[in-house]
Every structure is written in structure tokens, then in C-alpha cells.
Amino acid sequence: MNEEKKLLRSVLKESLFFKGLSEELLEEIERIAIIKTYTKNQIIFREGEKALGFFLVLEGVVKIYKLSEKGKEHIIHLLGEGEVFAEIALSQVESYPAYAEAITPLKLAFFDKNHFLNLLKRRPELAQNLIALFSIKLRSLVKTIENLVLREAGERLLHYLWELSEEGQNKILELKINKSHLALLLGITPETLSRLFQRYQKEGLITFEKNKIILLDTKELKLRINQGIL
Description:
The chain is α+β, with helices and mostly antiparallel strands. It is built from 8 helices and 11 strands. Helix 5 crosses helix 8 and helix 6 crosses helix 7.
């Protein structure tokens, strides 16, 4: 087994979509996977392009985003290792509803829609994983809407840090994206994000170490989130 196949098998076993499947079924999934590599800033697909299949992130980070009529970018999702995107291709949707772009060097497993649907017909146990995936994505979408509509900029950042820390379990948070992308994800300007980081650092909530954010007071962070304190 070559290195790419080993990587594919490792990620499949840990991915929420494929986790818990039998070895036999994982081998069938591997056989229809096409491994693709992308350079930083390379477009994977554009909004409106024919939806030929979906992707599993093996290495790197991908952003899913929309463009306004004036060309303003809004990031919908940032996805890393083990996460699936463009699974909407498995429905009746004919085209991709957003853009996908590599924001780091990227390695993906591509699954052709027709090949995967044929596998799904033969192995219906896959359907449970697919339903679970759609449920997770729906909850994520609701959170995104809630973040943008109901929360102020400071609240968005605090909630993002809390989720990234897995609700306070991890105090050292690695930022796999730059601050400009994070600002777009949170729907705020880079200047506002910088001011918030400076403020929370002065208040003793966080500190920085290279590309890592260190949570200094998780109890205070949780309190602010629960009480809506900025």
C-alpha cells in the first residue's frame, strides 16, 4: 500500500462520515476514491459548475465561500482533515452552490457522484452515515446563521474560540488559517478582529505564541459566553 492509500485509509477511519464502517466496505470506498492535490489558492470548483461528486479532506484546509454581486467574499465554512464537502452533489442538485478553494497546499479524495450512489444502493448501511452527515451540516449552518444575525463581533470571536477549544478542553488552539480568513469567516473586518484580539489579550483571556492562541482563563471565557458578556 503506497503512502497516499495509507493516508486515505487513516482519514477514512477517523472521518465522521466513514467512521465505524466495516473493513470490507472501507476497501470498496477506497477503490472509487480519486486522490487529487491542489496548490495554495487554487480553485477546486466554482459556483454554478456541474456537481460531479464530493470531496474528503486528507491534508490541508479548504474554504467554501460565496461572492456577492460586487465581488465581496463571505466564507461559509473552513474545513480540515477528515471533513467532507460538496456532498450536496448526492442529491438532485445539478451544480455546486458555492466556491471551494485551497487556502493551504491540499490533498483531497474525490468521489464521483454516480459511482458513490451505485455503492450506496449496494451497501445501504452507508445511508445512516450520510443522514448523520447532513444532520451535522444542518446544525453547523444554523450556528453560522445565528452567529452572523444574533451576535456582535466580540461574541462571534468568543464563541469561535470556545468551539475551537472543544468547550474548554483544549487551552492551546492552533490557527490553521490566517487572520484575514478568520475575519471573513466571522463576518467582521480584519481591523475589528485585531482590536478584539488586543482587547482580550489585555484582559487576560488569551495570549499568542506564533500561530497558536493560548486560552488563559477558560472559566471566564465560558462565563462571558453564557451571560453574553463581551
